[in-house]
Specification:
About 30% of the residues lie in helices and about 25% in strands. The protein has about 525 residues and is of the alpha/beta class. A hairpin with a 5-residue loop joins strand 17 and strand 18. Helix 11 crosses helix 12.
Length: about 525
């Protein structure tokens, strides 16, 4: 396999950023903990964990990587194909993500339609996949979504290269403006600037960070992205697939580039070499940001120093406390994630409706915080406490929409139903924090419940009868957990003796070392 090209790290262009508004509080910090096998990045807001990114060397994210692959199967019935890109599992290519030469031609010939938003639905291919691809064909694809569970990575032929301010789309003549830029005058200004500098035959999406920047900054960003694309395009024409032809930035560079804004007061990193590399990268991309990078060398682990380890532990639990005494119960399943809001110990001081509304309002902020910290995606159902008044439901819904503006992930939220339910989706590209850090419990098979001692005891009695009949022997040796043996001989002694008498059994119990309480013991101890 030919070596991958990395995103250039040399000085690219002198950019400027907007100054902090007078009186604005710099309340955010990026805390980076890195070692040869794992990198963790925490975004803190006023000391609270707001977002967490974890990447391990053996499971490095491939989102953004570009490959030359080979189509292994085309499935007309699913309008999808599988592609061998050299990954652990074949990648999944949806029919709408396949480039149609006719669509590309029509798009490039069509006039630009004004400051559209970043939605690309009008560019989605509608031609049946079996007319565009065949088995054994070589394709250039980009990973859009990480492999999740038993599913392979989701890939697309609609390539894109993100920079600080712009995203380059080589295959389409298109200008999009981030929907988070809401000011119409600013949207038109950015559209006009990009239209003047954009080469023919390529698409450009303006990112939220571009708000307020001038043409020179955008032009230098576009020049850099165009240079990267020329390298990728040239490399895609040589070598033998499956082949990695472009590797996206490391998690430290990519996360810092995407999260940095004027509110970031400092960036603290506990590896001096990685810190110097980050400074060089920021000097090349975001002037002024490199000055905020600080090296951490104290003996105490950096995540302990900033109380982040405790926040991570909380983020792996099912129950989250609310300020007034209420609480959330969070349950992640294969199909969806549910949030259940409860008043708990909070009884309020006025009417029941005001108590309920206040609890729901507190839950809104905590729910969005947990969506970001846990990186929860897919289908999400929120079960708010029932609100009788329409104005209360609208108040909670508006608050949810406002909080979600802080979230960079794309979301789609339906109105609160009369039952107090909210259905929403959140774009998912990587595994959630729970899937990254936890395995399915081998004892309960992921159900979160274990069979009761009584259930195990009755099953054991039935198994003794079954085994005696099958083997034609009345002498049985039974290895059993001590709490189950105690239950049979004490709580159900009458049942046990009746079975022994009826079948003429001679039972010898042999204890085993495992006890249910052992599962609650820590997995390690350091003395």
């Amino acid at each position: 396999m030919a070596p991958a090209i990395a995103s250039p790290k040399t000085s690219l262009y002198p950019l400027t950023i907007k100054s902090v508004a007078k009186g604005q509080t710099i309340s955010k910090q990026l805390i980076i903990n890195t070692n040869p096998v794992e990198t963790r990045i925490a975004l803190l807001h006023e000391g609270r964990l707001e977002e967490l990114f974890i990447e391990r060397e053996h499971g490095r994210s491939r989102v953004g990587n570009i490959y030359r692959g080979i189509v292994t199967r085309v499935l007309p019935g699913m309008q999808a194909a599988f592609v061998n890109a050299g990954l652990e599992r074949t990648a999944f290519l949806y029919g709408g993500d396949v480039l149609d030469p006719e669509l590309v031609k029509l798009n490039r010939e069509a006039p630009l339609s004004g400051p559209d938003d970043e939605d690309q639905t009008r560019l989605v291919n509608r031609t049946p996949i079996e007319k565009l691809l065949k088995e054994g064909e070589e394709v250039v694809i980009q990973v859009a979504k990480e492999a999740l569970g038993s599913k392979g990575a989701r890939v697309t032929m609609f390539l894109s290269l993100p920079g600080r301010y712009l995203v380059l789309m080589p295959n389409f003549n298109h200008i999009g403006i981030s929907r988070r830029i809401e000011d119409e005058e600013e949207r038109h200004r950015l559209y006009d600037l990009v239209r003047q500098i954009k080469p023919d035959g390529v698409g450009v999406i303006v990112r939220t960070a571009a708000e307020g920047v001038d043409s020179g900054h955008l032009q230098k960003d576009l020049k850099y992205l165009s240079k990267v694309w020329r390298t990728v395009d040239g490399k895609s024409r040589h070598g033998s697939p499956p082949q990695l032809i472009y590797q996206d930035l490391s998690i430290i560079f990519k996360t810092t580039r995407d999260l940095y804004n004027d509110e970031i007061g400092k960036i603290v990193i506990d590896d001096s070499q990685a810190g110097e590399e980050l400074k060089r990268f920021l000097k090349a991309t975001i002037p002024g940001a490199a000055e905020k990078v600080e090296s951490y060398s104290a003996p105490k682990p950096i995540f302990d120093e900033f109380d982040i380890e405790l926040e991570i532990s909380k983020a792996l639990g099912m129950k989250i406390e609310l300020p007034s005494g209420g609480y959330l119960v969070i349950d992640q399943t294969e199909a969806l994630t549910s949030f259940d809001v409860n008043t708990g110990k909070f009884v309020g001081t006025l009417s029941a409706q005001e108590t309920i509304t206040k609890t729901n309002m507190e839950a809104v902020a905590k729910i969005v915080e947990q969506l970001r910290v846990r990186n929860i995606g897919g289908i999400i159902v929120i079960d708010f406490i029932d609100m009788e008044r329409l104005e209360d439901r609208e108040k909670v819904y508006d608050s949810l929409q406002e909080e979600l503006k802080k979230d960079k992930a794309r979301t789609n939220v339906l109105k609160i139903s009369e039952l107090g339910l909210v259905q929403m989706t959140r774009k998912r590209t990587n595994e959630s924090l729970e899937h990254q850090l936890m395995d399915q419990c081998p004892f309960c098979d992921g159900r979160g419940k274990v069979r009761s001692v009584a259930t195990e005891a009755y099953d054991l009695i039935r198994e003794m009868i079954r085994s005696s009949i099958q083997k034609g022997s009345t002498a049985l040796k039974v290895k059993v957990r001590e709490d189950i043996r105690e239950w049979i001989l004490n709580r159900e002694a009458e049942l046990f003796e009746s079975v022994v008498d009826k079948y003429g059994l001679k039972v010898e119990f042999e204890p085993v070392q495992l006890d249910l309480a052992d599962l609650r013991e820590p997995s390690f101890e350091v003395n």
